[in-house]
Amino acid sequence: MSIPKTALVPHTRLLSSLASIILCLASGSARADKPIYWHPYAGSVFAAQWGTPIQLFNDPSFNNGFRAVWSCAQYEGDNSLAVGVCRDYYPPYVNALYGTSFSIHTWPDPNPASYSSDENKYWDFNEGIHEGFTDSNGKLYPAGQNGSYSAGTQLAINRLEANAVLISSPTDPNQIFLESFNTDPAPNPHAGGLVRTVISDRHGHLIMYMDTSNEIRNAATDNGSSFAVDTWPHFAVGQNFKQLIDLATFSQVLLSFNVDIPFVTILGNPIPYASFSDATYNVGFTLRRKDQPTTVLFLGYTLYSQHTDYVTPPEYSESFGGDQWGQAMYRGNVWDVGGPLMPGTGSHNIIVDLRTLMNKAIAKAQANGVDLSRLEDYYLAAAGFGWETMGYEQVRSDISGVSLTGNPDIIFDSEVYQDSVYDAYNGDLPWAGDGAPGLRRAHWKEWGVHEGRVASPTFDVKIYAQRWGWTMPQCYDGATVDYECAVAHYVTYGRNAGRPGQW
After folding, report:
1. What is the Cα–Cα distance from 503 to 497, expressed in whole angstroms?
2. pTM of the predicted model, to two decimals?
3. pLDDT tens digits, one per residue of 123-149
């Protein structure tokens, strides 16, 4: 069931820096290319590792560097879902009056001419869109057709991936140190100013700094839909997963990281007609519906917010609505994760349970007349952390200990569940489209195992219960068998005791 957009009310924002890229790439109909889906139980190795969380973030130490996701023109998978390795980049749309050439980079990039440089890089920066305006020299940066996002026309030189200087540190040659500057010459009053700095020690510590007063383009007067294709300055780091993660296969997904905000300085807002200045630091997830992958749900928290027009920032409260493109968005109450961060108070550990967050979103959405269904009906497409601002600010954040772990759900043990078998033995179920494997896994978790359906050539939970029910009285409610319990009994005890699930 798709989410009715008419039921969504305009939402202020929640990590729209993640929302922007996913929705921009998701606009339009899905391509014929098959998406890449990741199922962690492809081999029997996981059968011996129940209870061991799987790290879902690649390169949590920030050792390999950073991708150029914003400038990717062709992915190896489905382009509309932005999955797989980037195989081709858009050229930056450069103002010819400036006489300056830029390159798309992944950092570090030993071979900028090679499109294979994305192979082992997973983190990317999201810095917003700048298009649909005329610059100070009269050069037009046109918007896409009908006002839609168009990576080929936007001001790509605004971003780190196209306009960063890789600096060699005199104290640590292994450090990744990036800086980007305002390359718009006079009459831009901030020409040459430092816009962003990124420092990775390659051991899990990442520093991010932004001075929005030096932005090439900073003209938004509010955070509404009128600025959706020429957004307010923001700066987030995250992973757009190269393989969509099937959330049905995990009993729990935990995001954990340490974050320190050394300072936030509001410089004032000289933008004419702007209603306020603010700076917010957010953490969020991007989920895609399995039955309609271009339908997106955003979940997250605003961990810090400073407004010039509110004593208590509204972003700290729970809310549900729609983003600038009408996609569903839920922001949890900041007190669910310990309360708002305060600059200059040191590092704080943030832990977010995605399933708990989703359940809160479901309840809030239902109160607004919207059915979000279940976590099992979604793939995890992206997760990240970062800044959104309005007006002129200087902000810094330091993160470390970044981890996104999934606890495998025992009912997907490779001896218990095999997708091809479940498909073959349950042909009466309404599977459809490229998302069918994910839909099958969702059905197995919600209905199939509970009903005792067949999902393996060597194990039948009904037969197992008939043969060995006397060894697991805890799996019975009178004469009724709890098949989920019986599966867990087999995986954790029965097979090791030599008790097969067949006659």
Report:
1. 16
2. 0.87
3. 999 987 777 777 777 777 777 665 556
